[in-house]
Design goal:
alpha+beta, 2 domains, seven-stranded mixed beta sheet, 4 helices, 21% helix, membrane, transmembrane, transmembrane helix
C-alpha cells in the first residue's frame, strides 16, 4: 500500500472517530473567498474515464441508506454511514480521496478534468466549462446558499422525491447496520439525497439531453434539511391552457346542439303550417293510377296543376295551362220522405163574351 493511500485510510479513521457528526455538515465550513483561494493553490484530482459502480451500489449495502444520526434522512451510497465505517467501492478513488480530505477539514479543488460516472447525468448549464453530475432520473441539484461564484455546485446536494414509492433501504443506528427492509415514504416532501460530482469537463461540456433546471435553497441543521424546489419543465401545456381547451370544446358542442334543435323545430313548424293550409287533403280519395290530376277546391281561387297531353306521335308534349277556377258555393241537399203527390183541383173559367172574342 502506498504512503498516500495509507495516509488517506488513517485520515478517514481519525475523521470518523474525532470529527464525525455528518459529512454534509462539515464539508463547507470555509467562506467562499477562502475556499476560492484554497482551490486555486491546491492540486486537483482528475477523473478522466467513466466509472462504473458495482451492482451492490444499487442494492442492499451501499445502496439507499437511512441514517439515524442524520435525522433519518436517506442517502444514496453514503461514504461514511457511521463512525469507523467507510464504503468506498461505489465511488472512484479520486472522489473518495477528495471527499475524505474535505471531510477532515482540508479544502479540495474541483475535479479537473471531470467525466461523469455511469448512471449519472450532467447538471447545468454553468459557465467556463464547469459541470456537476447527479444520478440519472433524479429531480435535480439543490445548490448551497454560500457556494462560491466559480463553483456554483460546490456544497450542493442531488435530490429526488420518493413519496409513495417502495424502495429498499439499509438502516443504520449510531454505530452499525440495523436492518435492511422495504420502505415507503408517506410524506409528500420526503426525498432521497446524493453527493454530486463537480469540476471542469474534459474538452467541451456536454449536457444531458433532458437537463433539469431547478432552483432550490438549502438550510442545514443538525437534525433536518429543508429544500425548496422550483422546477420548470418544458414541452407540456399549462393548467390554464388545458382549461381553456376544455371550455372551448364544451362551448362548441353546445352551439352545435342548439343549431340542430333550431333547424328541427323550424322544419316541424313549416310542415305543420303546410298541413293546416291543406287540411281537407285527407278527406279526399284519389284513385290509384288515375290519369286525371287530382284537384282540390275550396273557397279560394286556385290554379290548375300542370296538365300533360298525350299525342299519337312519339314522345310527350308538355304544356302548362294556367286556369282560374271558381269554387262553387257549398249546397245543402235534404232528403224528403216519400209520399203520394197531392191532387190539384182546377177551376174552369167561363167563356169570354162574344164581343170580346176575336173575329
Amino acid at each position: 500500500m502506498s504512503s498516500q493511500s495509507l495516509e488517506i485510510s488513517n485520515l478517514s479513521l481519525v475523521t470518523s472517530l474525532k470529527f464525525y457528526n455528518h459529512p454534509i455538515q462539515r464539508l463547507y465550513t470555509m467562506s467562499p473567498a477562502a475556499l476560492t483561494t484554497a482551490s486555486a493553490t491546491l492540486p486537483s484530482f482528475a477523473i478522466t474515464t467513466t466509472f462504473t459502480a458495482p451492482t451492490q451500489c444499487a442494492q442492499s449495502i451501499g445502496g439507499l441508506t437511512m441514517l439515524e444520526n442524520d435525522g433519518f434522512r436517506i442517502w444514496l451510497n453514503a461514504p461514511l454511514p457511521v463512525p469507523g465505517t467507510t464504503i468506498s467501492s461505489c465511488y472512484p478513488d479520486q472522489f473518495m480521496s477528495s471527499f475524505l480530505l474535505q471531510t477532515g477539514g482540508i479544502s479540495q479543488a474541483p475535479f479537473r478534468p471531470l467525466v461523469c460516472p455511469d448512471g449519472y447525468e450532467t447538471q447545468g448549464p454553468y459557465t467556463s466549462n464547469y459541470i456537476a453530475c447527479c444520478p440519472s432520473g433524479w429531480d435535480g441539484l439543490a445548490p448551497a446558499s454560500n457556494a462560491p461564484s466559480d463553483r456554483p455546485a460546490f456544497g450542493g446536494t442531488c435530490f429526488t422525491n420518493i413519496y409513495n414509492v417502495p424502495i429498499q433501504i439499509t438502516s443504520y443506528d449510531e454505530s452499525a447496520i440495523k436492518a435492511s427492509s422495504i420502505f415507503t415514504a408517506t410524506g409528500t416532501s420526503d426525498q432521497a439525497f446524493a453527493y454530486p460530482y463537480e469540476g471542469f469537463a474534459l474538452g467541451v461540456a456536454v449536457l444531458a439531453s433532458t437537463t433539469r433546471s431547478s432552483q432550490a435553497s438549502e438550510t442545514s441543521t443538525k437534525t433536518s434539511t429543508t429544500f425548496e424546489e422550483s422546477n420548470t419543465r418544458s414541452g407540456g401545456m399549462t393548467h390554464g391552457e388545458v382549461a381553456g381547451l376544455v371550455l372551448g370544446c364544451i362551448m362548441t358542442v353546445l352551439l352545435l346542439v342548439a343549431l340542430v334543435v333550431f333547424v328541427l323545430n323550424h322544419r316541424h313548424k313549416r310542415l305543420t303550417d303546410r298541413r293546416m293550409q291543406f287540411s281537407f287533403y285527407n278527406s279526399h280519395i284519389r284513385l290509384a293510377g288515375s290519369p286525371m290530376p287530382m284537384m282540390y277546391m275550396d273557397r279560394n281561387e286556385r290554379s290548375s296543376p300542370d296538365t300533360v297531353f298525350y299525342s299519337g306521335k312519339e314522345g310527350l308534349n308538355h304544356k302548362k295551362v294556367q286556369v282560374e277556377l271558381e269554387a262553387p258555393r257549398p249546397r245543402t241537399v235534404y232528403e224528403m220522405e216519400a209520399a203520394p203527390l197531392p191532387v190539384t183541383k182546377t177551376k174552369q173559367l167561363p167563356d169570354l163574351p162574344k164581343d170580346l172574342k176575336s173575329p
